[in-house]
Amino acid sequence: MTINREKLISLLMEKTGIDRQNIEKQLDELISRIMDAANRGKALEIKGFGLFYFDEDEELTFRASDQLDSEINFSHAGMEPVELKSSKSVSPSVEQPEEKDTVSEADDKQQYTDETDTDDIYGIRKTLAGTSDDDNSEDSQPLGRLFREESPETTPEPKPKKETKKAGTSTSKKPQEKSKSMRKTAAKSRDPMNTIIVVVLAAVFIFAAYFVFTEFINAPEQPEISQQQNIEQEDPPAPAERDITESTEPQDPEPVQVPEPENEPEPLDDPIDEVTTTDPYGLYGELADAEGDVFAIVVHSLRDRGVADRTADELRQEGFRISVNERNVDGQTYYRVGIGQFPTIREAQQEATTLPDPFNNQNFIQRIQ
Amino acid sequence: MEPQFIKNFIQVLKEQIAKDNRVQIDGLGQFLKVHQTQTQKKLDDGRVVLMPPKDKIEFKSEISLTNDDQ
Asked: Which residue has better confidence, A118 or B5?
């Protein structure tokens, strides 16, 4: 619908309440003011509306003010240019014609190709082309607040991106929503990799925990096994022996005297007789030759040969079958005082439990033959 | 010319243009709203951007200095 002069005057009358003649008079005055300024090579600006001036083709031109522009463009407020391809990925032949907007009106289409649009993106405004004579007639009009008459050369103003800041309607948020959805899809595409990493880490952690747990469970069994293996291979377990040595050395004289010497002679006599005659094995008696493997219960492991011999003598006096064996552990010579002779490790271990305290706890089995 | 008249004149023009009406001012020209579709645009630095659709005021002038001279 076209609003002609008659319709416009009636609308203005409704709006202002001024009578028709006055409206017509003021409208004519406004038109003449615009034309007068334009004819003098000036641009007449009506604040909040726009700028009238003659362009290079000497045709009256109107440029809407930012305020009017944003108010008219309210349905597209907040929409910003979307970068489709960065400068690196663009090939020279990429430039394409505009895409048709399905909502657009066919009649009013205008190509969006002028460079000022590009400049608007970056907040740059081209200067208006036009001719001018002088610039010193500003505000010569009575309505200086609403009108500003200026030469075209001074009219250019940086065009702020008010449109983008304007509160948008539901349609104005589409680009932002698009970019958000693109980010979401990008994040989703990364998700599988993250989950794989998490699963792998969890699996490694579970295996590590399992091995640690099994080691804790098996820990008590290891000393016996290692002890037996070391005994059978005649490889002295260095750390264990040192501990025993250190702990037993200062106590050497005492543990020897602790066992009851007087209470056990009677049971000793019989085994000794038997051992000397028939059996080379057992806790008590004299050392005897035996065939095959022979094991002893080591109760002392000493560095000094003299101390070892004295300790052995004291134990012999108690009736034990004592042997002193020399062993080299890590370059250090130890003299091990062993009690008894046994054909198997198991028998030696069983007999070791019958020894008086502290020998029943502090001992280990060693092959002596 | 009263400032109040100018403000109301602008207000009426805005309202009518927003309603997709053309406003004819005899002796000046015609104001109308035009819709610009979204377009792809290649910038000088090689980037390709999608320009959003836009409504714009267009002024069809009745006045030309060359015509007047003739």
From this structure: B5
Mark yes or no for CB contact A82/B50 under 8 Å: yes
Find the helix or strand (DSSP H, E) in which B30 lies.
strand B29-36
Contacts A–B by Cβ distance under 8 A: 210
Q: Is the pLDDT of residue A38 over 50?
A: yes
Which of A42, A64, A157 lies closest to B23 in space, CA to CA? A64
Residue B13 CB: number of other CB atoms within 10 A?
23
Do A30 and B9 lie within an 8 Å CB cutoff?
A: yes
The predicted complex's ipTM stands at 0.81
**Residue B60 at interface with chain A, using a CB cutoff of 8 Å:** no
Q: What is the mean pLDDT of residues A226-233?
A: 46
pTM: 0.37
Question: Nearest CA of chain A to the CA of B69: how many Å?
Answer: 11
CB atoms A26 and B5 under 8 Å: yes
Alpha helices in chain A (DSSP H): 5-16, 20-39, 66-72, 115-121, 162-165, 174-218, 222-233, 238-248, 253-257, 265-277, 305-317, 345-352
The CATH topology of domain A5-79+110-183 is: HU Protein; Chain A (4.10.520)
Task: Judge whether A289 is closer than 8 Å to chain B, CB to CB.
Answer: no
Distance of CA A208 to the CA centre of its chain: 21
| pLDDT of residue A197 exceeding 90 | yes
Q: Which chain A residue lies closest to B65 (C-alpha atoms)?
A: A58
Topology (CATH) of A234-367: Alpha-Beta Plaits (3.30.70)
CB contact under 8 A, B52 and A79: yes
Number of domains in chain B: 1
Cβ <8 Å between A3 and B9: no
